[in-house]
Every structure is written in C-alpha cells, then in structure tokens.
C-alpha cells in the first residue's frame, strides 16, 4: 500500500498535489468566481445571515481552523475565531443565533471534538463538520459540512488532511466573501491561484533532497523554534507540532513578533529557529525578528519566496518556494515543514508512522 515509499507519512506528504486537487474538485466556479459547497445544507439566505463563525478542533485540525478563521475574517469580513474542542466544552459556551460553528476533524472520531459538537448542538448551535472519514461520528452528527476527500490518512502525523482542511476553509471563505464585499476580479485571482496549487506544491516537493540535507545538518538540536506571522502563524504552530510528534525534538511555535516578549531568552547556537517569511505584507517585520535572533547567536533557517535576496543575506539556510497569491502561501510553507519533520525523524531513527505514546484517533477525553 505504501508503494514506492518507505513510510506512510512520506507517501501522504507526496500525495498532496492530488489530495488538494480532490478537495477542490467540482467546487470552483469560474463563471461567478465563487465556490459551491452543497454539503453545507444551507440556503444563500441562511448563509447571508451568519454574523460570526467559531471553529473547533484539536491538534492539527485546530491549526487548520486557526487559518480558516483568519481567511474567513480577512476575505469575507465575518468575525471568526477558533477554540480548542477540549476547552470550549467545559466553558459553558455562549451559543448565539447567528453564529455558525465548524467542527474540524480528520478522523471524525476525536472525543474532545465530538463532545464539544454535542454540547454546542444541545444549546441550539448550528454545527457543520469538516471531516475526511465518510460516515464518521462527527460527520453524521453535524448539521452538514464539507468532506475533504483526502483518501485514507494512515500515518499518525497528519499531513495531507491539513492541506485539504484549509482548502475547505478557503472555499468557504471565497463563497462567503463573494456574497459580500469581494469583487469578481479579486475572487477570480484567488480561484485561479487555487487551481495552480497542485503544480506549485509539486515544485516544493521536488526540493525534498535539499530539505533532507537541512534536517540532517540541524539534527544536533534538541530544541527548535518555529516562527511566522499572520496566516503563517498557524503554519509555524503546525510545523512545531510535526517536529515534536515524529522526531521527539522539543519545538515551540510562536508568532515571530512574540519572541521578544520572552522566548528570545532561549536563543543560543544550539537552538535554531525556522522562520516562515514569504514575500507578503509582513515580510519586512519578520526580517526584523530574524535579525534579532541572528544578533543573539541563533541559527536561522528561512522558508521564503524564491529568489528573496534580502532573506538570503540574513539566514544561515533557506528553503525557497514559488511565488503565489499572498493568501496561498500557507499551502506551500507547510509542505517543507512536514518534510523537515519526517527527515529529522528518519535521521534520529524514530518510528515515523507510529510515534511513541500516540494514536491516530484519540477517542478518549
Ligand atoms: O482526527 P482529528 O483531526 O480530529 O485529530 C485531531 C488531532 O488528534 C490530530 O490532528 C493530532 O494532533 C495529529 N496526530 C497531528 O499530527
């Protein structure tokens, strides 16, 4: 089943051009520069009445939700936030009439998310699912939703589900934005950019040898920081989670701006930082944060846009990805982080597909 790949994790990382394509299949509408998501089971009128979106999930699905909230807010201008399933359930959540909830779960069986969904529904909340496994508990108990069609994800570390979950959110954000303020032209730019994603992801995958080499070079480190801002802040959190899970190296994800409020005290030559710094509106700010790390003796790997000389001059090493619409950077940025974690785990002799202490789906609270 793994075919030519030694591990499921690597196979699933390499499947992403196809799995992202499947998540978009039949859902993009060029004529109206919008998306169709039939499974939402909501009329256009009902969608128009939404005043707030709250997304719940755990682990990688939670980080996908963070990105989703950011996109919905940015593009559709609807207030959107993310909550950990395990927290919202016990917070006596306030459920309001025009709030739409999303429960994000690859397996559709995560107990924390399932129980939170039930609590929200009990209070009259409308909850949609973003699931991979068809017919799973969360998919069945939600009021509708979006299947991401990733195909089976076997490795404990989630990879292709993440890129498909965010695809689902981009589609939803596009749909909602085009009903509100986003122009046809701007909608089309995003939609066309999304269509090109499989090719761009392929270009990133071609750099796997370089990423493997970097993982080996930095395998001396016992601590790692992952730093990004804006849309790439959740990507930094996801990169840190991947490294922890499969390599057992201690890693923390932060907003690059936050390090000066404490974590910069950790910087030393043995604690490298992975900066996510695409060419976008926050690039210059992140470069300033990179300089702060360098001047304190920290090593910097920068994940940046192809040919960014400004970044090359500061970083010790770079991983460069093609230029895309600024909203789409997270798709290209997360792939090298998945590969980096994978190769690090291999270098350290870890059980990549079945890391210690972890199960694929966590069906206990
Ligand atoms: O099946 P789910 O998406 O609900 O799972 C949620 C988390 O348990 C899961 O994402 C976990 O964090 C992964 N092992 C991350 O790689």
UniProtKB/TrEMBL annotation:
Domain SIS: 43-182, 214-355
GO molecular function: glutamine-fructose-6-phosphate transaminase (isomerizing) activity
Keyword Cytoplasm carried by entry: yes
UniProt keyword annotations, A-Z: Aminotransferase, Cytoplasm, Glutamine amidotransferase, Repeat, Transferase
Superkingdom to which the source organism belongs: Bacteria
Subcellular location: Cytoplasm
Catalytic activity of the protein: D-fructose 6-phosphate + L-glutamine = D-glucosamine 6-phosphate + L-glutamate
EC number from the UniProt entry: 2.6.1.16
UniProt subunit comment: Homodimer.
Function: Catalyzes the first step in hexosamine metabolism, converting fructose-6P into glucosamine-6P using glutamine as a nitrogen source.
Name of the protein in question: Glutamine--fructose-6-phosphate aminotransferase [isomerizing]
Gene name of the encoded protein: glmS
């Amino acid at each position: 089943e793994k075919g030519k790949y030694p591990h499921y994790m690597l196979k699933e990382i390499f499947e992403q051009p196809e799995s992202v394509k499947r998540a978009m299949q039949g859902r993009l509408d060029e004529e109206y520069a919008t998306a169709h998501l039939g499974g939402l089971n909501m009329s256009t009128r009902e969608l128009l009445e939404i005043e707030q979106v709250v997304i719940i999930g755990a682990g990688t699905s939670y980080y996908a939700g963070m990105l989703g909230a950011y996109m919905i807010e940015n593009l559709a201008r609807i207030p959107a936030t993310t909550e950990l399933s395990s927290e919202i359930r016990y917070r006596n959540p306030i459920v309001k009439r025009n709030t739409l909830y999303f429960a994000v779960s690859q397996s559709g069986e995560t107990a924390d998310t399932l129980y939170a969904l039930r609590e929200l529904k009990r209070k009259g909340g409308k909850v949609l699912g973003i699931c991979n496994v068809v017919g799973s508990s969360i998919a069945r108990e939600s009021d509708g939703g979006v299947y991401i069609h990733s195909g089976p994800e076997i490795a404990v570390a989630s990879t292709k589900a993440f890129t498909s979950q965010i695809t689902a959110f981009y589609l939803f954000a596009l749909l909602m934005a085009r009903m509100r303020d986003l122009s046809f032209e701007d909608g089309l730019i995003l939609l066309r950019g999304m269509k090109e994603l499989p090719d761009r992801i392929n270009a990133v995958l071609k750099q796997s040898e370089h990423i493997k080499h970097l993982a080996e070079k930095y395998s001396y480190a016992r601590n790692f920081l992952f730093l990004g801002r804006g849309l790439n802040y959740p990507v930094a959190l996801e990169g840190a989670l991947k490294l922890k899970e499969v390599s057992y190296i201690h890693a923390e994800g932060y907003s690059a701006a936050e390090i000066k409020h404490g974590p910069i005290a950790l910087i030393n030559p043995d604690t490298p930082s992975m900066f996510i710094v695409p060419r976008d509106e926050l690039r210059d700010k992140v470069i300033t944060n990179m300089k702060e790390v360098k001047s304190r003796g920290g090593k910097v790997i920068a994940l940046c846009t192809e040919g960014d000389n400004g970044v090359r001059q500061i970083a010790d090493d770079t991983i460069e990805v093609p230029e895309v619409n600024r909203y789409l950077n997270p798709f290209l940025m997360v792939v090298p982080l998945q590969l980096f974690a994978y190769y690090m785990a291999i270098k350290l002799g870890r059980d990549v597909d079945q890391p210690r202490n972890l199960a694929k789906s966590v069906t206990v609270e």
